[in-house]
């Protein structure tokens, strides 16, 4: 442990360089990504959550028309998958919003997991660059409006 503590500045510099490589060498973005990856919730009281840092990274190149994924996100996604033990990415296309179940539900007495029902500590990257104009169906509206809940045998319940 003493050797690791002694080399902490060098390890941090190498890690920042590695993260920056996914953003064209942008060290500021790398600093924010590192802070986000290290942040943890330390206090929960009602709806107040302290300690977790949510990070929005903007100015990614626009994806090709009608694309389900943005190729510009791949280097960042690969980087996170290599660094984090639990990682999940989610492309928010209109089709995905209308088709996917984001919260748990019961189908014929069998409990089905939702897309966002992930283990604690999972790092999630949500790609909003692929979201296009269109009509949200009932499924997409429930998620986008924040009225997601759980769909059990007595019907959907807000959470």
Automatic annotation (TrEMBL):
Pfam families: MCM_bind. Keywords: Nucleus. GO terms for biological process: DNA-templated DNA replication. It is found in: Nucleus. It comes from the Eukaryota. One of its GO terms (molecular function) is chromatin binding. GO terms for cellular component: nucleus. The keyword Nucleus applies. This is Putative alanine racemase-domain-containing protein.
């Amino acid at each position: 442990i003493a050797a690791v503590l002694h080399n902490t500045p060098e390890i941090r510099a190498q890690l920042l360089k590695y993260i920056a490589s996914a953003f064209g060498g942008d060290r500021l973005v790398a600093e924010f990504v590192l802070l986000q990856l290290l942040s943890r919730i330390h206090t929960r009281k009602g709806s107040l959550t302290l300690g977790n840092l949510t990070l929005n990274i903007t100015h990614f190149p626009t994806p090709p028309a009608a694309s389900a994924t943005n190729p510009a996100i791949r280097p960042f996604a690969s980087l996170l998958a290599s660094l984090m033990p639990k990682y999940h990415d989610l492309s928010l296309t209109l089709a995905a919003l209308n088709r996917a179940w984001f919260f748990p539900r019961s189908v014929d007495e069998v409990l089905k997991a939702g897309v966002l029902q992930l283990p604690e500590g999972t790092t999630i990257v949500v790609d909003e660059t692929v979201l296009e104009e269109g009509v949200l169906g009932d499924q997409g509206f429930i998620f986008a409006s924040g009225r997601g809940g759980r769909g059990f045998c007595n019907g959907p319940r807000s959470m």
